[in-house]
Amino acid sequence: MTRINPEILQRALLREKAARKQAEKILEDKSKELYLITEQLRKANKKLQSGLTEKTTELQGVFDNLVDAYVLMNLKGDIINLNEAAKELFGYDVSEEKINVIQLIYKDDFEYAINSFKLLISKGFFSDYIARVNTKNKGIRWVHINASIIKNSNQKPIGAQGIVKDITNQRAIEAQNKKLLHDLEKSNEELGEYAHIVSHDLKSPLRSINALINWLREDYESVLDDSGLKNISLIEQTLEKMEHLINGILNYSSINNTDLKNTDVDINSVLQDIINTIYIPNHITVTSLQRLPTVKGDKTRIQQLFQNIISNAVNYIDKETGTVSVSFQENQSHYIFEIKDNGIGIEKEHFDKIFKIFQSLGNNKNSTGIGLSIVKKIVEAYEGEIWLKSEPKVGTSFFFSLKK
Amino acid sequence: MKGIVFTEFLELVEAKFGLEVVDKIITAANLPSGGAYTAIGTYDFAEMLSLLTHLSSHTNIAINDLLLVYGEHFFSVLASSYPQLIDKYENPIALLSSIENHIHVEVRKIYPDAELPTFEIVEKAEDSLIMLYKSSRAMSSFGLGLMNKTFAHYNTNAKILLEHLKEDGTEVKFSITKN
Predict the structure, then answer these.
(1) Measured between alpha carbons, how far is B109 from A261 in angstroms, rounded to an integer?
(2) How far is C-alpha A9 from the geometric centre of its chain's CA atoms?
(3) d(C-alpha B120, C-alpha B123), whole Å
(4) Hey, is the C-beta of B122 within 8 angstroms of any chain A C-beta?
(5) C-alpha angle with apex A26: A24 to A28, nearest 5 degrees?
(6) Distance (Å, whole) CA A255 – CA A195
(7) Half-sphere exposure in the Cβ direction for A313 (13 Å, CA)
(8) What is the pLDDT of residue A249?
């Protein structure tokens, strides 16, 4: 082996030393960098940790305070956790005994439960599951369940959670309400029929009395003095009024929102028909202030509604020139009509009373006190409201809304 | 250029030609670093060029031939440092065609400042591969050395043709056919 010049070795050594120092410097810088990064990571980690703790506490709070039962299970259906409400409902404590969700399903609802479970797996959730469950202490209960799949950070399903609501009592109440409603409908119907029959039966003796009175007048006109004839006249008037009354009751009882027809009704032609039908003295005019709309409804009822209000207005006008005007406004859901007159007006204290059956304010011979109660019933059948503004001696405005 | 390229180079020169030659080329090259290199450092490529030039004139061996030998040596350095990277590939063609899209991606994760050549795949078949080498370093022979040893690693060999698309060697077409 040839000897190497010591100077060469020395230079090689110096290079090695320099290289080592470089390496040490680089490593020193790197470890400083690493230290700083570690510090940052530690801070970030701490922040994450406190965020996680916060979220966990929040979730725990939700879990504990949830009024509805909360059930957590794995994909095999083994129940992992139940909140207090769930323990109370099902009667089980998973820390004491192992429970699988299959055990809780009521046997007749099994197929439905399995189908819902399949939906849960394929779609990730199901909602509005309504079925029966077996409980430890409360027997069979009706429940409503919304459930969803829980996934891990890799989006892999690891379990399922369900919010369970005990609807047993609610269902019982609903069933009871349904029965009550049915009974109510039935008794209403019976009442309507009863009123109808009674009115009919009352009309026939009324007609006989009317005929008998006529005969009395014809046969004894020469015998009776003025006072006797006057009394016969009064009997006739009273009979007429009574017939109006009975017709009114008949009318009232036959308004039923279940058998309302639903056709296009042009209020302009309805108004024209009314003007042609009812007696309007020459000094009174009935007009519309604008082109009126076409509404959906039963033509007879709608006409009855307008006619009753308009003829009331005509009957109670005391001015030399009488006006009755019809106008309307509309909003998104309703037409609001106004029928305005310059009649005698109504005192505020009577506003409620006038809509009640058999209530008539004046002594008008055509007034039975049924008209406005029929009006109210019709308006209500069309999901509307009726109200009025009035100034005694100046006039009255009736307002009513009809659903579009 | 990464320090490991310098340290491995000087070790190879020492092993092949002796410490005196190392001393001589370093002294002659008059390098800013003084020839003191650590594998974890980064140095100017001009220093490598200077060392190669002086070694070439001292030994009368062409620079490309020196680079070829160095490339063959460097494969063993990589193979012992990153065996799992090489084991991932079933055959040499698969490995070579992954340089651009996989191996260099991994290299950049460890050395974000690394200046790497590109190996664009022009044509790839089961037993052949045409790649376009592009690098301002013009070190295609170094690449050839690496490729030779890649095939040797899988106990095969190949015919590799180099075609200089630019005279300065910054763009070279590699046509590789497995024997």
Answers:
(1) 80
(2) 100
(3) 9
(4) no
(5) 65
(6) 12
(7) 30
(8) 76
Please name every residue paired with B173 in a beta bridge, in sequence order, or none if there are none. Answer: B132, B163
pLDDT for the residue A191:
80
What are the helix and strand counts (H, E) for chain B? 8, 4
> Is pLDDT above 60 for A363?
no
pLDDT tens digits, residue range B54-106? 999 999 999 999 999 999 999 999 999 889 888 889 999 999 999 988 889 98
Query: Residue A258 pLDDT more than 60?
Result: no
For A101-235, list the strands marked E by DSSP: 125-134, 140-151, 157-166
Contact predicate A296/A258, CB 8 Å: no
A364 pLDDT more than 80: no
* Whole-number Å distance between alpha carbons of A381 and A373: 12
A9: nearest CA in chain B?
Answer: B19
Task: Name the token pair of A20.
Answer: 């080592």
- pLDDT number for residue B60: 95
Which of A118-122, A159-163, A245-249, A284-288 bottoms out in mean pLDDT, i.e. has the lowest? A245-249
pTM of the model: 0.49
Q: Please give the Cα distance from A60 to A49 (Å, whole number).
A: 16
Of A8, A18, A26, the CB nearest to B36: A18
The DSSP bridge partners found for residue A149 are A160
Q: Which two tokens stand for residue A394?
A: 């100046």
Task: Judge whether residue A365 has pLDDT over 70.
Answer: no
Burial class (CB in 10 A: 0-12, 13-18, 19+), B70: buried
Q: Residue A146 in contact with residue A128, Cβ under 8 Å? A: yes
Give the ipTM of the model, two decimals please.
Answer: 0.80
pLDDT of residue A112: 92
How many CB atoms are located within 10 Å of the residue B172 CB?
22
- Provide, as residue numbers in chain A, all residues whose Cβ is less than 8 Å from the Cβ of B7: 19
Residue A80 CA to residue A187 CA, distance in Å, equals 53
Phi, psi of A190 (to 5 degrees): -60, -40
Contact B20 A27 (CB under 8 A): no
On whether the CB atoms of residues A30 and B110 are closer than 8 A, the answer is: no
8 Å CB contact between A385 and A402: no
